[in-house]
Amino acid sequence: MKRQIFLCLLILFLLAGCGAKPTPEPTATPTPTEVPTATATNTPTQTPTLTPTQTPTETPTPSQTPTETATPTPELTARLIWPRAWFTAADVVWRNYTCPLEGESLSCEFEYRKDSQGCYVGATCYDACGWFYSVDTIPPGVEEFSGPCW
After folding, report:
1. Nearest to residue 72, comparing CAs of 53, 54, 93?
2. Is 135 within 8 Å of 102 (Cβ atoms)?
């Protein structure tokens, strides 16, 4: 019986030795990891902003029944196109309402006429909202066209 046990153990050892060997598990190879260092981070600085010292000019709100002709503020007037002729504020007619695009895309048509008394001008100007203002110094009956008056 010893012999049978010995023979069984021998067969088991042989089978265990001839069997497929298990593949070893791959082992992780340690790699050097950089340790974070303290790095200065840029922090935003406050940028000074300019604030106007003047108070904004109020624009009149049109009413249903206008009592007077609206006149642009001097800041807007400086950006307008004026004819090359002598005229006064009484010769200028303004639109009687304001619009958000006032003075944008400005274009004008000019007409100069003359007679023995002098040189006259007529001008019509339009902006993004339509007709904006006119200048008229041409008296009735003056028909001869000319170039700019000055």
Report:
1. 93
2. no
Instruction: Write the pLDDT tens digit of every residue in 4-16.
Output: 776 666 666 655 6
- Give the number of other CB atoms < 10 A from CB of residue 147: 9
pTM, full prediction: 0.49
Find how far residue 136's CA is from the centre of its chain.
38
pLDDT digits (tens, 9 = 90+) for 31-58: 565 666 565 555 555 555 554 554 444 5
Least Cα distance to 76 among 98, 48, 115, 102 occurs for 102
Cα–Cα distance between 57 and 141 in angstroms, integer?
A: 42
CB 149 within 8 A of CB 86: yes
Non-local CB neighbours of 61 within 8 Å, separated by 6+ positions? 98
DSSP conformation letters of 69-134: -----HHHHTTS---SS---GGGEEE-SS--TTTTTT-EEEEEEEEETTEEEEEEEEEETTEEEEE
